[in-house]
């Protein structure tokens, strides 16, 4: 299976967290749609079927990134 680039995953996780915070303050149709889009992209990127599994998989993949990996600096 192909693995997504760490920067891509990191950005998806950041966007997901920001949208969850926004949804807690402002539960609009636009925020829900954007959160669904990011959740879907996380699922596709991690090869999972649920947002919960995708979040766990993305975090696990990023946990394997070493401190000497400068790929996160390119963001």
Biggest sheet, in brief?
A: none
Parts with pLDDT < 50 across at least 5 consecutive residues: none
State the total count of DSSP E strands: 0
- The N- to C-terminal Cα distance equals 24 Å
The percentage of residues in β strands lies in under 5%
Number of helices: 3
How many structurally independent domains? 1
The radius of gyration over CA amounts to: 13 Å
SS-based class: mainly alpha
Shape: elongated
Protein name: DUF5133 domain-containing protein
InterPro entries: DUF5133
Describe this protein with a few key phrases.
single chain; 75 residues; mainly alpha; 3 helices; 0% strand; DUF5133 domain-containing protein; DUF5133
Outline the fold blueprint.
Blueprint (H helix, E strand, L loop, with lengths): L5 H20 L3 H18 L4 H13 L12
Organism: Streptomyces alfalfae
Pfam families: DUF5133
InterPro entries: DUF5133
